[in-house]
Amino acid sequence: MITGWDWVILALFAALVAQDTTAGPQLLFSEPLVAGTVAGLILGDLRLGLLLGTAIQLIWCGAVPAGTAVFLDINVGTVCAVAVAHSAGDAPIAAAASVLWLIPVGLLGCALTEIGMRFCGTLVASIRPERVTASALVLRHAAGWLFAGARGSVTFLAGAGAGVAAVPVLVRLLGAAVDPGVLWAGLFGAGAGSAIAATWRFSKGKAAFLGAAGVLGAWAGGLLPVSW
Amino acid sequence: MEVVLRAFWIQASLNYESMQGLGRLVCLLPAIRWLSLPGKEFASFVRRHSGLFNSNPFIATLGLGALARLEFDRNANPESVPDGMIERFSERVSTPLGSVGDELFWVTLRPHAVLLGALGALLTGVWGACLLLVVFGVWQGYYRWNCFRWGWASGARIAAVLQSEHFRRPAIYAGWIASGCAGAAFVLLLVKSPAGALTSKAQVAAFAGAFAGACAALSHRKPATWAVMVAIGWAMMVSFGAKMLCG
């Protein structure tokens, strides 16, 4: 159950997350791992926030909001996913369904980001060097930052509002078709694959990868609790 | 110092026409306050800096340091910085600052911090999120502050900084650490994921199939959303198969 205050605090937090993603200060508290954990903390369900934050972080660890590239706004989407999973009753299948729900929310965030860039374009075009003052420049710049915040709040409220209605349907559909443990094993498998693909292609650390995996693998060799 | 602090918000007014053009202008305002330009000169300063500026936000201070130095030199000796030089410099430096910075931060340092954080989350829970913030905070603090110093010292010759060893070396170490973390995370997810350990053949099959699907999708430059779809589809097939086998 999400209270009215929770909605308000989460909407404000989503605004900060959207600002940190594209506008500043870009300290990376908007990354899914941190945003999910904080959203879980706000809702009093740290375990759910951490679970979703870690899974989403690993799956989308190669996606970056660089330049004008179109990207899925997974950061605000994570806050939304935690809220929706919490309202749907925190069952493992609801948490998995909220990861799916993140995709349309991310697309909405992406569309609003583009509108924000056009809005900033009109702000910049209105500058007349002969008449402009330093404070007018700062105000125009700050307006762009505030727009990013509004974008985050709107994305969250629209995404979570619709998600509260849509995710229970997804939960019923998924629940009938898949075992929750198997679904989460698949999602974390995708996370591990994405993390490896993101680092393997670009970095020169293949030896480090194999070394760390080998050492931990040897250590875990006797611990893997799989019954064949 | 104020220029570096303002540079944390350089992308606030990011737009398609001038990219971080207005952000660059706002960041440079504290630097020109020393010069106390008269009204006409201020308008000319705004005109010089209202064109395109596109840099990776984390190393934008390199360009800002160089631009502040050029403004300072121009004020001290107008002949040392000819008309149009600052505008040309801004445009020409945009591509290298964007590409070198993106490669350094988005491709290497961010995945390194994110994977260290994820590994920390798998091992210690909430401390993983703190680790991510601290590690990336240290990297960006180092680059933002030093880039401004290097830019101020080099002026228009910042290409040498971008090619220098001390600028690029941290990326190599970070790449090794990121790869090590990815390997360790892979093993830890097998043993102890936040959703519980893999305790049945069906779970192991779902993990392995989704892992292979994600590797294949991302190595063919498909978005991670594909990996999620493949994982869910595969998990459904595995669940269905397990139900059939169990009767």
Key terms:
heterodimer; A: 228 residues; mainly alpha; 0% strand; B: 247 residues; 2 domains; 10 helices
General description of the model:
The complex is a heterodimer of chains A (228) and B (247). By secondary structure, chain A is mostly helical. Chain A has helices at residues 4-23, 32-42, 46-59, 74-87, 92-125, 134-177, 180-200, 206-220. Chain A has one domain (4-218). In chain A, 76% of the residues lie in helices and 0% in strands. Chain A is globular. Mean pLDDT of chain A is 85; it is low at 224-228. Chain B is mostly helical. Chain B contains ten helices and no strands. In chain B, 56% of the residues are buried. The mean pLDDT of chain B is 84. Classes of the chains: A mainly alpha (228), B mainly alpha (247). At the A-B interface, helix 2, helix 3, helix 5, helix 6 and helix 7 of A face helix 2, helix 3, helix 5, helix 6 and helix 8 of B.
For the residues shown, what is the average pLDDT of chain B? 84
What is the chains' assembly state? heterodimer
Sheet having the most strands of chain B: none
- Give helix % range of chain B: over 70%
Quickly describe the structure:
The complex is a heterodimer of chains A (228) and B (247). With 228 residues, chain A is mostly helical.
How is the secondary structure organized here?
The complex is a heterodimer of chains A (228) and B (247).
Chain A: H1 4-23, H2 32-42, H3 46-59, H4 74-87, H5 92-125, H6 134-177, H7 180-200, H8 206-220
Helix pairs in contact in A: 1-4, 1-6, 2-3, 2-4, 3-4, 3-7, 4-5, 4-6, 5-6
Chain B: H1 2-6, H2 21-33, H3 39-48, H4 60-76, H5 85-124, H6 127-154, H7 159-163, H8 165-191, H9 201-219, H10 224-246
